[in-house]
Amino acid sequence: MLRDRQGYRKYLTPKERETFLVAADRFDDEVATFALVLAYTGCRISEALELTVGQIDTAESAIVFRSLKKRRDDVFRAVPVPGDFIERLVRVHDLRNRQVSAPLWPKSRTTGWAYIKQVMAEAGVEGTHASPKGLRHGFGVAATQKGIPLNIVQRWLGHADISMTAIYADAIGDEERALASRLWRPPAA
C-alpha cells in the first residue's frame, strides 16, 4: 500500500525526490553516495549496505544487488544508474584499487538510517515517507509515472510477484491531475 493506516503517503513525490538528490550532494561523499544509491535504484537499505566493490558494473553503468527477500543467496539483479554516478562511485570509493569483496559502506543499518534521515532533513522532507522505504516507494512511483514497463520496475526492485509492483501505478501522477483538472474548470461559454 502507498498510504499508511492514517492515509498518509509513504512515497516521495517527484519534487521531493529531486530535492533529496540536490540535498544529498551537499553532504560528504560517503553520505552522498549512499543516499544516491538508494534514490537512483530503489534498493532496500540492507541491500545497499552489503554492496561490494565487485557489484559496481562500470561497463554496464549498473549496480548489482543480491536480492535479500529471495529464499536463495544467489539471486541478483542489475539496476542501471547514470554513468556519471558510476564514475563518482569509482572515484569516491577507490574501486580500481580495492578488492572486489570490499564493502562500499562498512556501516550498520542504524548508521545508514541516520544518513538518510540527515539528507531528508536537509531536503525539508518530513513525515512517514521521509525514510529509506519512502525512497524505495518514490523510485517505484517515479518509474511507473515515466512509463517504465511494470516488468522492468519489478526486476529493478526485486519483487517476486508483479502485483507488488503494480501498486506503484496507483499513485496520483501528472496525467491523473490533468484529467481531474477538467472538473475544476468552468464549462466553455
UniProtKB/TrEMBL annotation:
The lineage of its organism: Bacteria, Pseudomonadati, Pseudomonadota, Alphaproteobacteria, Maricaulales. It comes from the Bacteria. InterPro entries: DNA_brk_join_enz, Integrase-like_cat_sf, Integrase_catalytic, Tyrosine_recombinase_XerCD. It comes from Hyphobacterium vulgare. The keyword Iron-sulfur does not apply. Keywords: DNA integration, DNA recombination. Residues 7-181 form the Tyr recombinase domain. This is Tyrosine-type recombinase/integrase.
